[in-house]
User: What shape does this take?
Amino acid sequence: MSSPEQWTHPEPDAAPAATAAKPTAEQVIAGLRATDEGGADLVQLLTPEGERVSHPDFDIDITAEELRGLYRDMVLIRRVDREANALQRKGQLGIWVPLLGQEAAQIGAGRAMRETDMAFPSYREHGIAWTRGIKPTDLLGIFRGTDMGSWDPVEKRFHPYTIVIGNQVLNAAGYAMGQKFDGKVGDDEGEATMCFFGDGATSQGDVHEGFVWAAVYDAPLVFFCQNNQWAISEPTERQSRLPLYQRARGYGFPGIRVDGNDVLATLAVTKWALDECRHGNGPILIEAFTYRMDAHTTSDDPSRYRLSDELEMWKLKDPIERVKVYLVRQQWADSEFFEGVEAEADALGEELREFCTNMPDPPAERIFSNVYAEGNPNLEAQRDEFLDYVSGFAGGEH
Amino acid sequence: MAAPTMDRSAAAAPASPVQTLTISKALNLGLRAAMEANPKVIMMGEDIGKLGGVFRITDGLQKDFGEQRVLDTPLAESGIIGTAVGLAIRGYRPVCEIQFDGFIFPGFDQIVSQVAKLHYRTQGKIKMPIVIRVPFGGGIGAVEHHSESPESYFAHTAGLKVVSCSNPSDAYWMIQQAIDCDDPVLFFEPKRRYYEKGEVDTTAQPGKLFESRVLRPGTDATLVAYGPMVRTSLDAANAAAEDGTSLEVIDLRTLSPLDLAPVFESVRRTGRLVVVSEAPSESSIASEIAAKVQQECFYSLQAPVLRVTGFDTPYPPSKLEEEFLPDLDRVLHAVDRSLAW
Assistant: This one.
C-alpha cells in the first residue's frame, strides 16, 4: 500500500483511479476513499446547484423569510466555527472541533425542534447549540479549559456535550422514556428527544443498546446520525458493511437517509420524525449524509489519511451556497440581505475574539466544587488543606 | 398505561413495629417504603419484575407498583445505567439492580463517565440521584463472575458514594437513605448474608447513612469490616472473648466517603488494627484505611495495621473459596500477630 503522503501528492504517472475526482467502488470498500454517493434513498429537496426538487414523502412549504433565516443561521455558525478554529491557532483555545460542512445538517435538525423538545449532543454540535439559544461564547470554556459547558442544560433543554463516544445515546433513551412515563407523548402537543452522534459512534455498544431500549419502550426519540464519512482517520466502511440508515430496520423502527448538506431536506425529515415521536410512533433513525470539511479537531492532520480531491468533490455540495443560489434565483433575497448577514457575522466574530481573549481562569476552588450534591467531609478537608497551602504563596512571600 | 393499583393488603403494616427479618426481606420492605414515599422512585434491572429478582429483593413490587415503576429491562448493564441517567435528568430517582457483582463492568463506563461526573461537569445543574444495588462477595459456591468484590473501583471514583449494609436493620434504613440521597450511591449488599435474620424497628429514628458504627466495644485490638465480613468479625470477637481477648468491632457501612473518626478513636485506645475485607488487598479500601490510620494514629500504634483480605488473584473456582475468603481463623491469626508484635 502506498503511503498517505503519496495519496495527497500523487505522482504524475500514478494510476488514473488514484487521482480521479470520483472514488472507485474498490477504493470505497477498501476504506481508502469516502463516497459522495448518497444512493437512491437519499432525501433531497434542494440540489447542490440550488434547484428545488420534490420528494414523494418529504416535502416542505418554506417561506422566503424562513429560508433567509436558515441561511443566516448557517452563515453565522460557520463564522463562529472559523473564528474558534482561528482562536485555537492563536493559542486562545486548547482545541477546537470544527463543524465546517455540517451546517445544514445541524441547522435543519435544530430548527425542526420545539422548545419543549430535548437534545443530547455529541461534541461537534455547535449548530444545534445555536438553535437552542446557547450563546456561541458559552461554548468556548470547554475548549479553553475554563469549564465543561456553562449553559443550563435543563433550562435550554440541551444536554452538556458528551465526549465519550456514544454515551449520550443511552442517556437520551432514558430521558425519552421519562417523557413517555410522564404522559407527554401521544398527541400534537407531545414532547420528543433528539440524540446526535456520528458515524463512528454507530460501532459503540451504547448506541446499539440505545436503539434497543428506545425500541422496546417506544421512546419518543429521534436518533440523528451525522455521517460525515470520517471518524478521525477511519472511513464509514470501517464501521459498517451497509448504509447506516438501514440498520434501523433490524431494531424495528424506520431509518431515513437525508442529504445532510441540504438544510430543507434535513428540516423536513427531522420535523416529520419529531412529529412521529411526539405522537407515539418513535423511535426513528435519521442518517444525515454529509462531509467533515475540516479536520476531526485542530489536533488532527487529515492529509495523512484522505485525498484533497475528495474535499474538492464535496465543496461542490456546499450547504450554504445552494441556499444562496436558490434565494437569489427566487428573488427572495437581495444584496442588502447578504451584506447584512455578512456584517452580522463580522460582529459575531469580533464578539467571540473579544470574549475569548478576556476569559478569566477559574479559581482554584473550582477543582473541588460540586463534586457532590450533598458534600463529602473528606474532600472538604482536602480542599481546605490545599487552599491553605496555596494561600501561603500569597503576596509573593515564598 | 393505566395507573398501577396498589394492593394495600400486600403491604399491610405489621402489628408491632419491631420485626425479625432477613436482610433480603428488610431490603424488600425498604424499597417498598421508598416507592410509597415518592412516586418518582423507580426500579430498573434484569428479572426484577415478575420474578422479583434472582434473590427476590424486589419481590412483589411490580405487581403492586406496575410495570412503569418496576422495569424488567433488556439484558444490558450499560443500558440500565445509561438510561437511568436520562431518567434522573428527567426527575426520576432510579434504583438499578445489577444482578451479580461481576456483571457491573459493562455499565462501568456509564457509571464513571456520566453518573459520577454530570454534577461536576454541570456545576450542580444536573443531579444524579441514582442508586445502583449490587449483590456482592463470595461464599455461595457460584460460577465465575458471581462472587466478586468490586467496591474499590467505585470508591476510587470521585462523584460516587459507596455504602454496604451488614444487617437487616441497616438494610431497611440504608436503602431508603441511599434513595433519598441526591448523589449517586453504589449500594453493596452482602449476598451470602441475605438470609441472616435480625430485628428491624420500622419506626426507629435511623442513624446517618454515611457513618461508621462501633458494633462491639473492646480494648485489646480493633477489627474494621464491612458487608459480609462484619459477621465474620463479630464471630471472631466472640471467639477471642472466650480466650480473654477483647476486640472492638467497627462496621464501616460507608466506603466513600470513609468515616474513619470512630476507627481513629478506637485505635488510639487499642493501638492495634486489623482490617477485614473479601476484596483483594492491593489498592483497596483496606489499603486506604491502613494509610489513613498510620497518618492519624501514628504515635498510638503498637503494631502495624494488618489486612485480612481475599488474595490478589481473580476469584478462584468455588471449591477453593473457603481458602480464598477471610474466615474466623484468619482474622484471629492476624489478631494474634498484631498482639504479639
Observations:
- The first strand of chain A starts at residue 118 and ends at 120.
- Chain A touches chain B at residues 120, 147-149, 152-154, 159-160, 162, 164, 167, 169-179, 181-182, 205-206, 209-210, 212-213, 216, 369-374, 376-379 (CB under 8 Å).
